[in-house]
Write a structure and sequence with these properties.
Keywords: Repressor, Stress response, Transcription, Transcription regulation
GO molecular function, one term: DNA binding
Shape: elongated
Strand order of the largest sheet: 7-3-10-9-8
Protein name: Heat-inducible transcription repressor HrcA
Number of strands: 10
Function: Negative regulator of class I heat shock genes (grpE-dnaK-dnaJ and groELS operons). Prevents heat-shock induction of these operons.
Largest sheet: 5 strands, antiparallel
Structural class: alpha+beta
Number of helices: 15
Pfam family, one: HrcA
Number of domains: 3
Strand content: 15-25%
Oligomer: single chain
CATH superfamily of the largest domain: GAF domain
């Protein structure tokens, strides 16, 4: 029997017992006993009657008893049924809204910096770990510049036709001079305008092969090193911004759980191919909730994920925002926060041009 039918066939007493157990567990993380339920149920019944209802719910796979003679906690199936059928979603509070909106710099067109601040704010507001999948930049390039920061550090700045700016720090080849930086920038600007990043990569290879004599070795090395910060094999992982891991690590003292959560974050930070994360949102707009093992990305850590895509002005999904936390997340509060953040990011990016 599917969960929707199961919920509709539960009587009022069973539904109320189930709902109170789940809500109490999400609030405290503790098992709920029959005696405490008898004090809060709308119908006056004995503890024995409540125990019978709890046993029935356990038989249906909706509750579990972590210890003998202890109270009950919801199973993942129980949490899923609660989220789908009984969850009451609130509104984003003015305080949370203000915290999230304060991350937007009115004159800041640098998308990665903005998304990093939004990720930190989302993590702080929800007390979970936040994920922000940055959009892949495919707008045409308007201008490229190299800026020397130190002997071993330089900045490559890309300005796009839609007004967005991307800055990346990298290690330049040894021996760079101000003139080689100017030459490298001039070379790139002579061929880059109007091309996307992926188109420019092909063009650079062709131009350097056919005009090798016209650009000196130092500038040529700088072009390769500067462009590599976008096109090397680690670039994809930089699109996934993870903030607030300490919130999850601080949730538990259980060594096994800590190890699983650490493995989750290590996996996220190493991940080259983050297409799986976008696949979570490919069934249209709106918030989706993955509880524990329902999501293969996070199943090992026993965590839940609340995720929503965001869209550009053409209503095309270009990224996503989400919150990871323990399965006993305050879903009613976090769902609207994730939804609001996704809409805010989509609007910021759409209005950036």
């Amino acid at each position: 029997m599917d969960q929707e039918n199961l919920l509709s066939q539960m009587n009022d007493r069973s539904r109320e017992v189930f709902q109170q157990i789940v809500e109490s567990y999400l609030l405290t993380g503790d098992p709920v006993g029959s005696r405490s339920l008898t004090r809060t149920l709308s119908e006056k019944v004995s503890a024995a009657t409540v125990r019978n209802v709890m046993q029935d719910l356990e038989y249906l796979g909706l509750l579990d008893s972590p210890h003998v003679s202890a109270g009950r906690i919801p199973t993942q199936a129980g949490l899923r049924m609660f989220v789908d059928g009984l969850l009451e979603v609130g509104d984003v509070t003015p305080e949370d809204r203000e915290t999230l909106e304060s991350t937007m710099g009115s004159n800041d067109r640098e998308v990665s910096g903005m998304l990093d601040r939004i990720g930190s704010a989302l993590s702080g507001v929800t007390q979970g770990a936040s994920l922000v999948l940055a959009p892949k930049q495919e707008a045409p390039i308007k201008h490229i510049e190299f800026v020397s920061l130190a002997a071993d550090r330089a900045l490559v700045v890309l300005v796009f036709a839609d007004g967005q700016v991307e800055n990346r720090v990298f290690t330049p080849p040894i021996g760079q001079t101000p003139s080689s930086m100017r030459e490298a920038a001039n070379f790139l600007n002579s061929i880059a305008v109007g091309l996307t990043i992926s188109e420019l990569r092909t063009r650079i290879t062709h131009e350097i092969k056919t005009h090798r004599q016209e650009i000196d070795v130092l500038a040529q090395d700088l072009v390769a090193a500067g462009f590599a910060v976008w096109e090397n094999e680690g670039t994809q992982s930089e699109r996934l911004i993870v903030r607030g891991r300490s919130n999850l690590l601080g949730e538990t003292e259980d060594v096994e759980t800590l190890d699983r959560v650490r493995a989750l974050f290590d996996d996220l930070e190493r991940k080259r191919d983050i297409a799986e994360f976008l696949e979570l949102t490919d069934e249209g707009e709106g918030v989706r909730i993955f509880i524990g093992s329902e999501n293969k990305l996070f199943s090992l850590s026993g965590s839940s994920l609340v995720v929503s895509p965001y869209m550009n002005s053409d209503r095309k999904i270009i990224g996503a925002v989400g919150v990871i936390g323990p399965t006993r997340l305050n879903y009613g509060r976090i769902v609207p926060i994730v939804n609001y953040t996704a809409q805010m990011v989509g609007k910021l990016i759409s209005d950036g041009g």
